[in-house]
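Translate structure to sequence.
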């Protein structure tokens, strides 16, 4: 049973961020077969979101396209192709994403480009500009949920504004 490869129920929407930079998101360079994956500033829209299926495949917003390993590269391919190269596993403890059939091939990032390689041992998942640790964040479909605090609304425009000074039981000073 592969339905828990990501620690999430099949059909769950997720956003994948480099562990050391939550403002960056993994996205396909385009929604077409053969398109590569890249790490870019999060847009907080459907291009950041992947949907996990019951096999552990990552579907893009175009549900017919899945992330697939291709000779060390990560590209989009037709999800109807039943290939072990499109089944991934997220190790929450190590924060690494590997091929299900070959856990010695983990998703790696360097200079914005994603690819597969062996885990960097003894380096805490980062070495010479290569990062291999990931945060997998649930997405409820609300774009603001994962936006950085600076982009979140700070007040409710229909709510009355709060006083600058907390109320006290003493009367306010009056001018004489």
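Result:
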């Amino acid at each position: 049973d592969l339905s828990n490869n990501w620690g999430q129920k099949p059909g769950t929407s997720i956003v994948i961020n480099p562990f050391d930079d939550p403002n960056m998101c993994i996205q396909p360079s385009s929604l077409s077969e053969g398109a590569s994956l890249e790490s870019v500033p999060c847009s907080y829209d459907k291009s950041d979101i992947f949907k996990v299926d019951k096999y552990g495949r990552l579907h893009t917003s175009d549900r017919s396209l899945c992330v697939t390993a291709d000779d060390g590269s990560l590209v989009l391919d037709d999800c109807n192709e039943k290939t072990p190269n499109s089944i991934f596993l997220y190790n929450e403890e190590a924060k690494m994403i590997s091929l299900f059939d070959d856990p010695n091939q983990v998703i790696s990032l360097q200079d914005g480009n994603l690819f597969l390689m062996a885990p960097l041992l003894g380096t805490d998942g980062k070495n010479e500009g290569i990062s291999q640790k990931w945060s997998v964040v649930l997405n409820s479909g609300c774009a603001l949920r994962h936006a950085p605090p600076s982009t979140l609304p700070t007040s409710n425009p229909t709510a009355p504004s709060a006083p600058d000074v907390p109320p006290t039981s003493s009367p306010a000073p009056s001018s004489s």
